[in-house]
Write a structure and sequence with these properties.
The complex is a heterodimer.
Chain A lengths: L1 H26 L5 E2 H28 L8 H4 L11 H12 L3 H9 L4 H29 L5 H8 L2 H30 L3 H24 L4 H24 L11 H17 L6 H26 L2 E2 L7 H4 L9 H9 L7 H6 L13 H24 L3 H8 L2 H4 L3 H10 L6 H10 L12 H15 L6 H38 L9 H23 L5 H30 L7 H23 L7 H14 L4 H5 L5 H40 L33
Antiparallel strand pairs in A: 1-2
Helix pairs in contact in A: 1-2, 2-6, 2-16, 4-16, 5-14, 5-16, 6-14, 6-16, 6-24, 6-25, 7-8, 7-24, 8-11, 8-22, 8-23, 8-24, 8-28, 9-10, 9-12, 9-22, 10-12, 10-22, 11-22, 11-23, 12-16, 12-21, 12-22, 14-24, 14-25, 16-21, 19-20, 21-22, 22-23, 23-24, 24-25, 24-28, 25-28, 26-28
Chain B lengths: L1 H14 L4 H12 L8 H14 L7
Classes of the chains: A mainly alpha, B mainly alpha.
Chain lengths: 707, 60
């Protein structure tokens, strides 16, 4: 009894704290709620989930076995297979899964109020996202680090496997386009931002040469130099923005930036990695982790009140100006990364499983790192909802609704049911060193304003706010560009691999013509969507972000389907709900969203309803009421809407079909295993005894460099 | 305080792979004592190529 109290007493306290915080979040009356309640509700929930649910999954569902040697131990070659200290591996894995997604999604979802986003970020990660990461990591580890695509092929079948592969490739293209769009929207007409981001290229080149020739492998010292130069570049940007001679030269229109990004993406994909991609990767990783830590400290010190209401009316009527659609399913599609992200299953089935020392560590690395990612999303939602809601909507609503001046924007915002005066909008822009903040969609600028307010409250006051704003913009743009580089490369390899099946020479990644053609294809793919998004009369983020969300959740559905199949094959049918329930939920969300995007008669939501309105306008030779209500301005807009909605609509159909194919193919396998009396065929690597102890130290002989 | 900072620095060094070459040498000596080991420069170049030529991915 006494023992039990000692063991569980602390957990009772944590549970009570968590329940209290959730209670305040859900029910407290009064003007505003402090961010602290949200912070502690999240932390208490994570702690309980990690201690109880993750441990349940580890022991009962997966049955990790520390006497079994991991691939890192068995196949140790000191390079890609190597038992790595769990704390170091946690850092690596977290750096690989943390990207711009968890920062952008929650900002957009904030239009529905702070509560829907917060609930999904926390509940979603505990029951779905972290479960997906942990199970995929475990299953891949048991198969010597096989990729998700290979596992889908081996465990489900060639049809499911092929669908998974096509899904990954098309998602990659949409993902890169959306991320590049975020960068374009953040840098357009901003000489400060454009200059500091452009400077990252020479900085990365310098670091690349240094690491390749001067001092190989000394990543840390060159990163310190790189970060110092980067901060100098941000100050330099402030100087450029004020100088009358250079400000004009560094001011770009959105279309010029699209051109620059496409050329950059192509060159970066063709150049050797050591020159540009690898150093940029280190730079953005350190910036990312540093900024996340700073943000956590900043929020903990300032504890800002949340000014956004708990729910806005847009959660229910689906008429939000940031993106259209009601709470279900669009909040879940939009938040994606912070709660459940299919992309993590690619990381969890790539490098990480080859480095794990002990099977039980999948809990800390798979589940734990994802909780941390979710915490980043919680901070993003705090930063966005601590802003004045009027400013939030003036920045994020579709620019066509806002007009060009502070007055027109203030008026539009009052039409949404919030109030802000033109003076505040101009002042906010001035504080962050920009001409205007109106209609700066994409999430990144909003987050940057939020971050700059939090940071400058701790260090520097308003004098440094412009610096902090551009610091945040730079940090987001930097790691988005890193993803663009790396993603283009990955896509290039996939195309070379695919075509290589038909025509051999193409598969050799060192063959220059193949390299150039595949790079051009992939850059052309995302470049097209980027261009279409920037020039979309209905607002690019509004149109493309749901598509990206659907694609990402589709990949999660593939990972959860593979997981459920393997659980059934392991004879764990009675625990198959652990991945089965998130799968059912994810499929329901994704398919409902696709359904609405395809069939909704509301032209604000349905691609084909928009398309019909465009066709009608073109035939009539003038805009009809529907397009005018959507703020289209000319008949050229109608033509553009026709093309965009056709492409987006067809892609949505493709994604929905892919989910159905993967799940249907897997159901066939499940049926055969459960009722058809089929013998499960597993592709697990055979059991072998481990010679490492829980800390990764040698137990017996075996000199193999474990430390 | 100094102790903490040193621990963080060591962690960062470990995480950025500065000790990877030393470990590689140990493994190499144990498994292929007869073959020539890569030099530091060769090792990091090979490692980097491995990392980026294998389309494992990252999250957006």
């Amino acid at each position: 009894m006494n023992n039990g109290l000692r063991r569980y007493g602390i957990w009772v306290v944590i549970a009570l704290v968590g329940a209290l915080c959730w209670g305040v979040l859900a029910l407290a009356r009064g003007e505003t709620i402090n961010a602290g309640w949200l912070l502690f509700a999240a932390l208490a929930s994570y702690a309980i989930a990690y201690r109880f649910y993750a441990r349940f999954i580890q022991n009962r569902v997966l049955g990790t076995d520390d006497s079994r040697a991991t691939p890192a131990e068995r196949l140790n070659n000191g390079r890609d297979f190597e038992p790595m200290d769990r704390r170091v591996l946690f850092g690596h894995h977290f750096a690989a899964i943390a990207g711009a997604g968890p920062l952008v999604g929650p900002v957009l979802a904030a239009q529905m109020g702070f509560l829907p986003g917060t609930i999904w970020i926390i509940v979603g990660v505990i029951l779905a996202g972290a479960v997906q990461d942990m199970t995929t990591l475990f299953f891949s580890m048991r198969r010597d680090g096989k990729s998700l695509g290979q596992m889908a092929r081996d465990e489900i079948g060639p049809v499911g496997g092929a669908a998974a592969l096509i899904a990954v490739l098309s998602i990659m293209v949409i993902l890169l386009a959306v991320l590049a769009l975020v960068v374009v929207l953040a840098l357009a007409e901003s000489p400060w931002g454009s200059f500091s981001l452009a400077m990252t290229v020479p900085i990365a080149l310098f670091m690349g040469v240094y690491m390749r020739f001067l001092r190989p492998g000394r990543v840390l010292e060159v990163s310190v130099i790189g970060v110092a130069l980067l901060i100098l570049a941000i100050f330099g940007g402030g100087w450029i923005a004020e100088s009358s001679a250079y400000a004009g030269f560094w001011t770009f229109t959105p279309n010029q930036l699209v051109f620059a990004l496409v050329v950059y993406g192509f060159v970066a994909s063709v150049l050797p990695v050591w020159l540009l991609l690898a150093p940029r990767d280190y730079l953005s990783t350190f910036m990312k982790i540093g900024t996340i830590i700073l943000l956590a400290v900043g929020i903990a010190i300032t504890l800002p009140p949340l000014q956004m209401p708990r729910f806005t009316e847009f959660a229910f009527n689906g008429q939000g100006p940031v993106f259209a659609g009601a709470l279900f399913p669009f909040v879940f599609i939009t938040i994606a990364c912070g709660a459940l992200s299919g992309f993590h299953s690619l990381v969890a089935s790539g490098t990480t499983p080859k480095l794990i020392q002990k099977e039980s560590q999948v809990r800390m690395i798979g589940y734990g790192a994802m909780l941390m990612e979710s915490f980043v999303a919680v901070m993003a939602i705090i930063a966005a909802t601590a802003l004045d809601p009027g400013v939030y909507f003036a920045m994020n609503a579709n620019p066509a609704l806002l007009g060009d001046t502070a007055q027109s924007a203030a008026q539009a915002v009052s039409g949404f049911g919030f109030s802000v005066d033109a003076q505040t909008l101009t002042q906010t822009a001035q504080n962050v060193g920009e001409e205007s903040i109106i209609g700066r969609t994409g999430g990144a600028p909003t987050l940057a304003v939020g971050i700059s307010q939090i940071f400058s409250a701790v260090i520097g006051g308003t004098a440094l706010q412009a610096f902090w704003y551009h610091f945040a913009i730079m940090f987001e743009a930097l790691f988005i560009l890193t993803t663009v580089d790396a993603g283009t490369r990955v896509g290039r390899f996939m195309i070379q691999d695919l075509v290589g099946n038909v025509w051999q020479p193409f598969a050799r990644t060192s063959w220059l013509p193949g390299n150039l053609i595949a790079s051009a294809l992939i850059v052309g793919g995302w470049g097209y969507f980027l261009y279409a998004g920037v020039n979309d009369p209905l607002g690019g983020i509004n149109q493309l972000f749901p598509l990206f969300g659907i694609a990402n959740q589709l990949l999660a559905a593939v990972a959860l389907t593979v997981g459920t199949t393997i659980l059934i094959k392991m004879g764990k049918l009675r625990y198959a709900w652990v991945t089965g329930i998130p799968l059912a939920w994810d499929a329901a969300v994704t398919l409902t969203a696709s359904w609405q995007k395809i069939f909704s008669p509301d032209p604000a939501i349905g691609f084909f309803a928009q398309r019909a309105a465009a066709v009608q306008s073109i035939e009539a030779g003038e805009l009809n009421d529907t397009l005018i209500a959507l703020k289209a301005e000319s008949i050229e807009d109608a033509h553009q809407i026709l093309v965009n909605t056709t492409v987006d609509g067809v892609l949505t159909i493709l994604f929905a079909a892919m989910i159905i194919i993967v799940i249907a193919d897997a159901s066939r396998v499940w049926y055969g295993l459960i009722w058809g009396g089929k013998q499960p065929e597993m592709s697990e690597a055979p059991w072998e005894e481990s010679h490492l102890d829980a800390e990764g130290k040698e137990i017996e002989r075996e000199p193999v460099g474990a430390r | 305080m100094i102790g903490y900072l040193r621990a963080i620095w060591e962690y960062l060094k470990e995480i950025s792979g500065e000790y990877a070459y030393d470990r590689y040498l140990t493994v190499h000596a144990a498994t292929h004592p007869d073959k020539r080991a890569m030099t530091r420069g060769e090792f990091y170049r090979a490692r980097q190529d491995d990392k980026y030529n294998n389309p494992g991915s990252r999250c957006p």
